[in-house]
Amino acid sequence: MQQREYNRYHQGWRRPFYGTVTEKEEYRKEIRQLLKKQMSDKWALQRETLMSQSKELDTLIQLDRTAIVQDLEQHRTHALFLKRYRDENKRLMETKWQENRLTRSLETLKERELLQYNPINWSGTLK
């Protein structure tokens, strides 16, 4: 019994160089099946790896797109803020210039009125 178990266990490791044609063909068939299984396992692993990489790539692309959209939105809001700031500054400067023109014209009117009532050239020699 032990002899038969020992032979059965180690029979798989012996190369049947000197066996019958059927033994040689069975051995070759087992080798082919093992190689086919190894190749199919390797291809399945590669397929699985590619699928996981493609999923990861899809998520990265989606994250990149959302980041680009956020950057674009931030740029737009910043540009809008700067435009409003510019317009407000322009309005403030124009109102200040208008006030300066108005105060200058009022001052010149006041000075003319004062000169009318109280001329500098009393003797009239500066004509």
Layout of strands and helices, then pairs:
Elements: H1 2-11, H2 21-117
Question: What do you see in this structure?
Answer:
The chain is built from two helices and no strands. The radius of gyration is 50 Å and the shape is rod-shaped. The chain has helices at 2-11, 21-117. The relative contact order is 0.03. It is an all-alpha fold and 127 residues long. The longest helix is centred in the middle third of the chain and has 97 residues, at 21-117. The protein starts with a helix and ends in a 10-residue tail after the last helix.
Primary descriptors:
127 residues; mainly alpha
Biggest beta sheet summary = none
- Tell me what portion of residues adopts beta-strand conformation: under 5%
Residue stretches low in confidence (pLDDT < 50, at least 5 long) are: none
* Count of strand segments: 0
- How many helices? The count is 2
Overall mean pLDDT: 89
Task: Explain briefly what this protein structure is.
Helices cover 84% and strands 0% of the residues.
